[in-house]
Amino acid sequence: MDKTLFYALGIALVVSAVVVSVIGLRWENFPPNRRALAGVFVYFAVLVGATAIFAVRNANNEQSEQAKKDAENAKTSNEISTTESPATTSTSTTTAPTSGGGSTLKVSADPTGQLKFEQTSLTAKAGNDTIDFTNDSPVGHNVQIQDSSGKVLGGTKTVTGASTTATVDLKPGKYTFFCSVPGHEQAGMKGTLTVK
Hints:
By secondary structure, the chain is of the alpha+beta class. The protein has helices at residues 2-26, 34-76, and strands at residues 83-85, 94-95, 104-108, 121-124, 127-135, 144-146, 152-155, 162-170, 173-178, 190-195.
């Protein structure tokens, strides 16, 4: 409904502007008095204000729909054992494994909101690797692991201003880690992961 009203008001604004312009060009004394001039100003102010309000509401609706799609995409990308914890800051890339192989990959998004990770390359040991992802930025991000054939093996859920973890079983080889939020990987939010 908001989208329809936004387009209807936008069209009304354009048509009104054209009509008033044509009238103004045809009649030298348009508007004929201050009262008519005030009426034209009020009419356009209301029309522009209503168009702006519905533009913002439409944008909020689209943002909400995109957030739902992002959540669904994260669920369908083989999300494995995710847990949420309070936001923490970390800059190291790996730590020693706790037991049974694997290691912890510490990944953090740029806290200013730029579409990049603070790390561009990571190393890990083969086994059950834990992704410890921190996103202190105001933009939602996640970390997904993809093998050389393009198959997504697992990753974290999308978070904003928080931390999350996920566990992925990785064999030795080269992988790509990236943010699966639409447009983020294409903007450069990715890196290489070497598993030994």
